[in-house]
Write a structure and sequence with these properties.
445 residues, mainly alpha, Growth Hormone, Chain: A, 17 helices, 0% strand
């Protein structure tokens, strides 16, 4: 987000490649973010193992695409319902304490899944209940984590880089976790994936406890919780850039991202494979997402990201449509790579812009609405995807999803001029866009 010096272009052409690479990882110079990076890198691998293992377990127990969607709904609807309240609490209390509690409870949830599965007592009702528990945890964890990012990176100029690095970390885990899960499920059963995940939470809990951070100044009783809820909603509803981003996000979450819950159906019925096939497909999503995240890590500024949002949604939609038509593993993996790229490009660009624009005093509440758009709409999407797959087949369902994403991209493109107009004064105040540059600069935002 920093403004490059006048001779930045000359310096960048003369500088060695190593210097550019070093610049790409500048957020890691902050000790607290280093600790977060190390702990999360371990924990997220376990998280992705659990996601794959849960999907395969449900499909093994039931053989039902509808129940895959139902479990996804149960795991995400609590986030939709509780996220606004969680956002108010995150703005009121110490965010590190919130994360320690959420990570501890998530560890308990994973270990409970492991015990039930390894003892062969697991039923679909217990999977539903434990998925709902994880949804409650996520309602507090996601806005807390997003709001805490600015506390770990003392220099706000490095915030966009930290978000991109975090996306790289998530997608490295997305690449490793599903592959390990597929191998482990094929060799043993899903319970070992849950056990590895439960143990992996220790790393992030330890990293949080080692951070040296000034405790958040709690926002005490100057305003009631209801008043703060209204304040956060008004801020989001009246600010066109954040409102438009969250609306597109909600559409993609409803219609596009639930393709993930149908992956066991594609692996088993469309591609005639097993757990390893599911691992390959999810690994391909991870590769595409990782390529996208690395491309964003290399950026020096937030400028130019706004126009990437509709482009990414278009790529995402095209990838889904092409995946829906494929009956070959190699082509399906290629389309999952494209889909993963588009999904992560839009997600990270949106997150970076929202985090850059939002006022600090409403950060937790705004990120709770971000959580609602990102995760909260997904339960309805999971249920819809499962029902559509049951009625018209998984392939046609994914094609419909892709068309919806493309329509969302077109709508957002029509809003770009108004969005840039409201963003420019904030970019000027932050030094991202020089004051002297007038309307023509808006085309670069």
């Amino acid at each position: 987000m920093t403004l490059d010096p006048p001779n930045a272009q000359e310096e960048s052409t003369a500088a060695p490649a190593a210097r550019d690479f070093s610049h790409a990882w500048r957020a890691l110079r902050h000790r607290n973010f280093q600790l977060f990076f190390g702990g999360q890198s371990i924990s997220l691998i376990g998280t992705w193992m659990t996601r794959i293992a849960t999907s395969w377990l449900v499909y093994r127990l039931t053989g039902s695409a509808l129940l895959l969607g139902t479990v996804g709904f149960a795991g995400q609807i609590p986030t939709f319902l509780l996220a606004p309240i969680a956002g108010v609490l995150v703005d009121r209390i110490d965010r590190r304490k919130v994360l320690v509690w959420t990570q501890t409870l998530a560890m308990v949830q994973s270990l409970a899944l492991a015990w039930l599965t390894l003892s062969h007592r697991i039923t679909i009702a217990e999977v539903l209940a434990l998925s709902a528990m994880q949804g409650v945890i996520n309602a507090f964890d996601m806005p807390g984590r997003q709001s805490f990012m600015v506390k770990m990176v003392e220099d706000r100029a490095d915030l966009s880089n930290a978000i991109a690095i975090n996306s790289s970390m998530v997608n490295t885990a997305r690449l490793i976790g599903p592959s390990l899960a597929g191998l482990l499920i094929a060799a043993t059963n899903e319970g070992w994936c849950f056990l590895v995940d439960g143990i992996s939470y220790i790393a992030v809990i330890v990293s949080l406890s080692m951070m040296q951070i000034t405790p958040d100044q709690a926002q005490r009783a100057t305003t009631s919780m209801i008043g703060q809820l209204k304040e956060g909603w008004t801020y989001v509803a009246k600010f066109a850039p954040i409102r438009s981003i969250l609306l597109l996000f909600a559409l993609l979450s409803l219609m596009g991202w639930p393709f993930m819950v149908l992956m066991p159906v594609f692996a088993a019925q469309v591609l005639h494979g097993g757990p390893h096939t599911l691992g390959f497909l999810m690994g391909a999503v991870g590769v595409g997402s990782l390529i996208s995240a690395f491309s964003l890590v290399m950026r020096r500024s937030v400028r130019g990201l706004t126009k990437m949002i509709p482009i990414a949604a278009m790529i995402f939609g095209v990838g889904l449509i092409s995946f829906g038509f494929s009956d070959f593993l190699w082509l399906s993996m290629l389309m999952m790579l494209v889909t993963g790229f588009g999904m992560m490009q839009g997600m990270t660009a949106s997150n970076t812009i929202v985090q850059t624009l939002v006022d600090e005093n409403v950060r937790g509440r705004v990120m709770s609405y971000y959580t609602m758009a990102f995760v909260g709409m997904a339960p309805f999407g999971s249920l819809l995807a499962g029902a559509l797959a049951h009625a018209i087949g998984a392939q046609r369902t994914v094609i419909v999803s892709g068309v919806a994403c493309i329509l969302g991209s077109i709508w957002f493109t029509t809003r770009l001029r108004a969005i840039r107009k409201e963003m420019r004064p904030i970019y000027e105040r932050l030094g991202i866009v020089p004051q002297r540059i007038q309307a023509e600069e808006a085309t670069e935002s």
